[in-house]
Amino acid sequence: MTESTRGVIYILANSLIPGVLKIGRTHRESTERAREISRATGVPTEYEVIYDQVVSDASAAEKELHSLLRIHRVNAQREFFRIPTREAIRHVQNVCARYPVNEVVEAVEIDALPSLETRMRRWLRRDLVAVKFVQYPDLCLIKWVVQPDFRKLAAYENIFDLAVIGDERDRCMEDRVRHHDIYQCEGGSYCPVHYSAKENFEFFLELDPYSMIMTGLDILTPEAADYVAHLWEDRKLEPPNRLGWNIVGVKYDMMGPEEEWRKVLAKNGIADRGTEGGAEIIDG
What we know:
Layout (H helix, E strand, L loop, with lengths): L6 E7 L6 E7 L3 H12 L6 E8 L2 H11 L11 E3 L2 H12 L11 E4 L1 H8 L7 E9 L2 E8 L9 E6 L1 H4 L2 H10 L18 H9 L3 H7 L6 H13 L16 E4 L3 H10 L12 E4 L1
């Protein structure tokens, strides 16, 4: 790919010519091309860009696309096609996929393990060493790494598409294409089109443990997974989203006689629980 071959494949529409789309290429911004065509044709209403995509070889992509759509062409000498919008977008996407632009897509990455440990540390897999939430412009992922043997460096990364749970990404992407000027997401969680990485990360942190095990988000221990399934399926109880605990016993391992170290604890504002609740006392 060179800068001279790189360009944009666009689809333009005009409200006064319903059902007919202009599909072509430009080496400039597609909006600039739309304004140029609007001035040249003298049409009362301007053309609008309803879809565009950057490609590595605009001329080749356009030639292939026009050949594919030849039966829809209104005039052999013009780039106008009588074709439904969604069908046109699908053809453009398929052809443009063969002329990718190798650009580094910046992703937002958030370390999720500390938050998960705060929420459900006792339920997490013991071989879990990293969990990250990653959001791209059209993708939300969870990546987790397990190290089966702590004596070895070998670790394995797992990548999970959160659309499996949210199930709204594709529809939202299509809606944004059709209504890009007035788009409002009506989808659920994990929609990278509408929600920020921070918002989608918060959605993930509130994901219930039963959904985790049922969708294949394998970050819980087998014992925890069995317990969660038992609560939900057998007892019809919703598993807790956050784990808590009650201290019912205290073990002291202090230096010196008990009378002295109890005074030291009290002096430093540490509650003296005595031997109630099963507290175990160990003299140093």
